[in-house]
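Deliverable D5.2: sample structural annotation.
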Amino acid sequence: MSRRPLKRPLIEWIFGAFSAVLVVALVGFLAWEAVFAGSRPPELVLELTSVEPAGSGTTVKIAIVNRGDEAASAVIVQASAQDASGGEPLQKQIEFDYVPGHGTRYGAFIMPGKVEAEGIRIEIGGYAEP
């Protein structure tokens, strides 16, 4: 009894070739990124997203965006604001544990009394490399 070898269908050859091309392209892309891609340090940008009254105070919501490739940890954000009474400036601080590369984190300051958006100043106090 002789056995004839089974012929593979054309569609199987097409998908096999397509899969091989995808694997080679993925390996090539990863190799290119590993060799030639630069790693930019954290580039932190603050955005004031909203200022809302909350009970007897004001909630100041912020977003911190990292436009760099590397992550930042222990990011300190400071806010100062002049309250409506014109007294001593209010100062608050938040620490974000981790802001990944190309990531965004959100937070809020709770300021006592009424605070206007125009009187708020936010800045980054510093960060550490994870």
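Annotation notes: The mean pLDDT is 90. The helical segments are 10-36.
The annotation will be released with the project's public dataset once the embargo ends.
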